[in-house]
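During the reporting period the student researcher (J.K.) took over the structure-prediction task from the postdoctoral fellow and processed the backlog of single-chain submissions. One of the processed entries is reproduced below for the supervisory committee.
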Amino acid sequence: MKKQSILLLVIFTVLSGYAFAQTIEAPVKWKLGDTWKYKLDQRDLGGITGGDVYTTKGFQLKVLAVNPEGKPGYTVEWKYTSYTTFYTDTLEEECAVTFKKFLLQTPIQLKLNAKGKYVSWLNKADIKKKFTTFYAQEAKKNGSQMCIESANSMMALGGTFADYFEAHVPEIQVFFKAFGLLPAEADYKKDTTEVFQDYILDATKTITLPKSIEMKASAIAGDAVQVSLISRVSEPDYKKYFNQSTKAGWDKMNMTPDVRKSFDEQLEAFQPKSSESFKVVFDKKNGAVRKFDYVTEMWGMLKGGESNFYVFEQQ
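J.K. obtained the following structure tokens:
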């Protein structure tokens, strides 16, 4: 083969590889004082309450510090500007309303890495001190210790103040998951596996189920980049494991034929699920999130599971 032909073949191979593994980027380039306002629409289906709960929140994200190049990263302030939930504005539960009041006057400082990914919560000790003072004042005003006692009892179960606080604001860590998607491959598919604890028959053992990951990314109109990713455990394989294991457990019970028939019908109608999906639009100029849809579905028990939906949109 002539040298020119070999050279052309090499060039074609390199270009073909580039075409099939094209990388899409929107680097984070934030400046001190950069500020964005967002609206969050959240829906929680199932879970502990077994209900279908909608929440709307507003927050402002502001860059407080830009680290030097030697230690790149950012300090940002997350400040709630509105907070409307089923518990605060429909049921008007006293402790939910108290937490809402506290949250609306309490900026949260976060440390991010150079790509905008969450690293840590910086003003944890300061917020804990303010929390204690605020709740004491509210208890005195309302003539009831119920809310501070409820918070203390939850923390006494083995958690910390940080665990308690973060459980009430899961959207903070969810929001920064978006920045873990970049740089993204334009078209990516992978078949892999996920290891579960065998929670039905023997919790000391594990099971392995097939899982697929699919990502798509592209530049879109408006000087933006869109990235979508879905990670899903194979539903047919999950159902096969769930049905076989559940029936094996039931076989050891002394059920009447009618009861067993009813249970088997419920089992056949149930589809276990485990998935996580992202769809994000980034500003190509500075890497800020313009819109982020995030969904998790985990339905692993016949009578229990949950789906969580988050939609963040820049205002």
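The committee noted the following: The chain is about 35% helix and 40% strand.
J.K. will present the remaining backlog at the next meeting.
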